[in-house]
Write a sequence for this structure.
């Protein structure tokens, strides 16, 4: 299987970006998909996740600004990010899982896409 993220870039504070993640040739059905991010000098954190039934979770810092969605038929996930701030700067990773989100077991990882937000 191959996991490829896209859509990162450089924006000014208050701007928006839409990230995409495509999973090619997964060995099994993908249940949970998550977006993680890692800021310079910080640990990676879970930003949002979405189960196959569409149920979602968000870290408090992105609630109301980020929207996660997916297309199960295409094994594709999206992250619409609005009202971006410098604190959102980092590398964003896609993590598909063959189990439900509550299991927190991430089986695949992408290479990441860079998001830079300037003030």
């Amino acid at each position: 299987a191959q996991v490829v993220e896209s859509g990162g870039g450089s924006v000014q504070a208050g701007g928006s970006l839409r990230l995409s993640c495509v999973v090619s040739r997964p060995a099994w059905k993908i249940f949970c998909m998550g977006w993680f991010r890692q800021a310079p000098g910080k640990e990676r954190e879970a930003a949002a996740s979405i189960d196959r039934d569409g149920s979602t979770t968000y870290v408090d810092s992105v609630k109301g600004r980020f929207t996660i969605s997916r297309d199960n038929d295409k094994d594709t996930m999206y992250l619409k990010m609005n009202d971006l701030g410098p604190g959102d700067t980092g590398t964003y990773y896609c993590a598909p899982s063959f189990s439900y989100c509550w299991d927190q077991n991430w089986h695949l990882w992408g290479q990441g896409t860079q998001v830079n937000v300037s003030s």
